[in-house]
Amino acid sequence: MLQEDTKKYEYEFCPFSNVTQREVGSVWNSFHGILGVWQEWKIVDNHFSAMHMSMGEQCGAHPREIDVKLVCGKDNEILNVTEPGHCRYEMIFSTPLTCHQHSMLVYPALTKHLQHDWDQLLSEYTDEQITEKGYNKGMQAIFKKAGYIQEFASEESQHKEEKPHKAGDSETGKRFSSLDTCIEAYESLDRELKQTKAQLQVFV
Predict the structure, then answer these.
(1) Phi first, then psi: what are they for 31, rounded to 5°?
(2) Distances, alpha carbon 118 to alpha carbons 89, 112, 121, 144, 148, in Å
(3) Where are the beta strands (DSSP E) in the chain?
(4) CB distance 12 to 32 below 8 Å
(5) Could you give the CA distance from residue 148 to residue 53 in angstroms, rounded to a whole number?
(6) Which runs of E-coded beta strand occur in 73-170?
(7) pLDDT at 130 over 70
(8) Least CB-packed of 12, 133, 147, 183 within 10 Å?
(9) Do residues 65 and 53 lie in contact, with contact meaning Cβ atoms separated by under 8 Å?
(10) Stretch 184-188: mean pLDDT
(11) Where residue 193 falls among pLDDT bands split at 50, 70, 90?
């Protein structure tokens, strides 16, 4: 857990867990809550570019979320936190783990099987057997198999989820229908987290 104080806020960053914010210097109605919970990596140009954390404390109609960008530095420390959008935060975190030229490359962190899938996909794209859209879709599938990004719901299902539930509807609108399903989802997330942590050791 890494902690950083500013004049107004105190931040705590727990990699692969969450980011919290505490308002300091305010006696009445100060904020102390979670800005985001670990969800997935953001990947740009074959590099892990940021740790995406969402489902934080509610902020109006939407939960808070934060992207933690990793940069090279001699110490593990929070350099800066900004709010580029309403309740959407960005943290700059320095660490010596990212100083190697190839430390944040995605390809070396993949299994041999997924590297082979990537090579084949790139070959098909280079030979113009698939379009750029097909290539990008294939890359997303590889990253999902690796556990680096989440499986997103289809646009149609997202619209369905956004519809408000009326009193008496068969669906309650809750995330989990029972304690068993909640426990099952937690165990699944825990397995994915352990897998990602193991894969991240290649950066050390």
Answers:
(1) -95, 135
(2) 32, 10, 5, 13, 15
(3) 2-5, 9-14, 18-23, 32-44, 47-54, 58-59, 62-63, 65-72, 77-85, 88-95
(4) no
(5) 13
(6) 77-85, 88-95
(7) yes
(8) 133
(9) yes
(10) 63
(11) low
- What pLDDT does residue 180 have? 59
What is the torsional sign of CA 193, 195, 200, 204?
positive
At 200 the pLDDT is 54
Whole-angstrom distance, CA of residue 185 vs CA of residue 98: 31
- Residues whose CB falls within 8 Å of the CB of residue 32, separated by 6 or more in sequence, listed in order: 20, 21, 22, 23
Confidence of residue 9 (pLDDT cuts 50, 70, 90): confident
Give the residue carrying structure tokens 């609108």.
173
Copy the structure tokens of residue 204.
């050390």
pLDDT tens column, 21-61? 988 876 666 778 999 999 999 999 999 999 999 999 999 89
Q: CA angle at residue 71 from 66 to 76, to 5 degrees?
A: 85
| Cβ count near 58 (within 10 Å) | 11
Q: Cα separation of 107 and 97, whole Å?
A: 17
Q: What is the mean pLDDT of the chain?
A: 80
Other C-beta atoms lying within 10 Å of the C-beta of residue 35:
27
